[in-house]
């Protein structure tokens, strides 16, 4: 059975000081030796991830982090990676030693609360000290945050911690969003155009394509999968118009020519913008392409770490199309994976991928950081559609964004 992709899993992060037992607690929660444990402080360096099913909630991703009280230059680097995890977790576990609570823990809980991350406090090593040793005022200041006494070493309180996580998890995390099924009524056809070229992974489809097929099936729709050159034949074979045509953004031009104007059309990347982030914000950011001038710096953010090809979308095709649209060469910087610059001021635009390898909270965090810095952010599909002059058509399947787009232009 194909496991759920990490991008749709509920991300649960473990945070706290060094040597409070975060890694031991993760091992106890997952019933596996996921993280190396040692009495020596600072054993965990990079964040450690473990996907699993937390029933009855569903697929989750636990993320163990280095202590946020680390020291020295190397410790600062470890803490920076741990703090970056705060940008993508949906649920937090603040791990502290039982009977010990100070300004560090209070500040960390306040930061999680300010980010609106539901949190459960796990007071570990409760076999050595009682949580009752905490002053009553400390518990009162936790403002309703669940507090569970546990011993990762002896397995005490682990079931209560799991139950607390289930109760604290954001309601409807797995039920409230659709990639495509809300656009394709039951029994109707979605034509999915998937070019197979040098950039396509050998023997498999890219994740947004797989997700789209599954979501169409979940919605009782019919998925017709074709390559771009077979699209005219596929359309003519249908008895009527499909409910929607979705294409890889790189084939936008040829697909737009082949699909009748009356048929709704968009791209996988634009669907991912709606599913993983904030489509309206990225639509607004796309309009900033009109203000670009030769020499302006553009940041291209690629969420995955694939090996670039000669016709790489983010490094070759997209820059070429944007240069043609602007009519002058722009300066492009490219980042991959979870790297994202803290200083966005040099950039006039950020162009992000569909973020199929990240999760929605991480994408929303990046959008928020761009907005706070006053830097427009768009995504691959939106930027390509704008460059090809089919921006409005690619947004036609989303009436709520069409109205927003008209308001932006007014």
Give an overview in words.
This protein starts with 9 loop residues before the first strand and ends with a helix. The chain contains 15 helices and 14 strands. β11, α11 (313-326) and β12 form a beta-alpha-beta unit. A 6-stranded mixed β-sheet has the order 2-3-1-4-5-6, with helices on both faces. Helices cover 36% and strands 18% of the residues. The longest helix is centred in the first third of the chain and has 14 residues, at 72-85. It is an alpha/beta fold. The model has no long low-confidence stretch (mean pLDDT 87).
SSE pattern, N- to C-terminal: EHEEHEHEHEHEHEHEHEHHEHEEHEHHH
Terminal residue distance? 50 Å
Structural class, from secondary structure content?
alpha/beta
Q: Helix fraction? A: 25-40%
Beta fraction: 15-25%
Number of strands: 14
Rg (C-alpha, Å): 24 Å
Low-confidence stretches: none
Number of H- or I-type helical stretches: 15
Shape: globular
Q: Give the neighbour order of strands across the main sheet.
A: 2-3-1-4-5-6
Main pleated sheet: 6 strands, mixed
- Mean of pLDDT: 87
């Amino acid at each position: 059975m194909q496991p759920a992709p990490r991008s749709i899993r509920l991300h649960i992060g473990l945070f706290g000081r060094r040597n409070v037992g975060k890694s031991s607690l993760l091992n106890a929660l997952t019933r596996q030796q996921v993280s190396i444990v040692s009495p020596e402080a600072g054993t965990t360096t990079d964040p450690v991830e473990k996907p699993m099913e937390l029933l009855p909630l569903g697929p989750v991703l636990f993320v163990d982090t280095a202590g946020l009280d680390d020291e020295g230059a190397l410790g600062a680097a470890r803490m920076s990676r741990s703090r970056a995890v705060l940008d993508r977790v949906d649920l937090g576990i603040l791990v502290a030693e039982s009977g010990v609570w100070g300004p560090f823990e209070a500040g960390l809980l306040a930061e999680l609360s300010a980010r609106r991350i539901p949190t459960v406090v796990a007071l570990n090593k409760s076999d050595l000290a009682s949580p009752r040793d905490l002053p009553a005022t400390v518990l009162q200041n936790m403002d309703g945050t669940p507090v569970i006494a546990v011993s990762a070493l002896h397995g005490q309180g682990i079931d209560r911690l799991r139950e607390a996580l289930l109760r604290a998890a954001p309601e409807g995390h797995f039920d409230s969003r659709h990639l495509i099924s809300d656009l394709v009524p039951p029994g109707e056809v979605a034509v999915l155009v998937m070019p197979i070229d040098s950039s396509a992974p050998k023997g498999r489809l890219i994740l947004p394509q797989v997700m789209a097929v599954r979501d169409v099936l979940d919605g009782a729709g019919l998925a017709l999968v074709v390559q771009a050159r077979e699209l005219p034949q596929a359309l003519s074979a249908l008895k009527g118009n499909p409910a929607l045509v979705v294409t890889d953004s790189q084939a936008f031009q040829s697909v737009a020519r082949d699909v009748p104007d009356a048929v709704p059309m968009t791209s996988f990347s634009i669907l991912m913008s709606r599913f993983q982030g904030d489509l309206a914000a990225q639509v607004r950011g796309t309009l900033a392409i009109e203000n670009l001038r030769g020499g302006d710096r553009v940041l291209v953010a690629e969420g995955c770490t694939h090996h670039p090809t000669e016709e790489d979308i983010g490094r070759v095709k997209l820059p070429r199309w944007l240069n043609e649209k602007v009519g002058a060469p722009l300066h492009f910087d490219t980042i991959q994976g979870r790297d994202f610059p803290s200083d966005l001021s040099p950039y006039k635009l950020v162009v992000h991928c569909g973020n199929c390898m990240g999760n929605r909270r991480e994408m929303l965090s990046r959008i928020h950081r761009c907005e706070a810095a006053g830097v427009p952010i768009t995504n691959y599909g939106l930027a390509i559609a704008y460059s090809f002059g089919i921006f409005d058509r690619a947004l036609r399947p989303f009436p709520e964004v069409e109205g927003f787009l008209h308001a932006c232009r007014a």
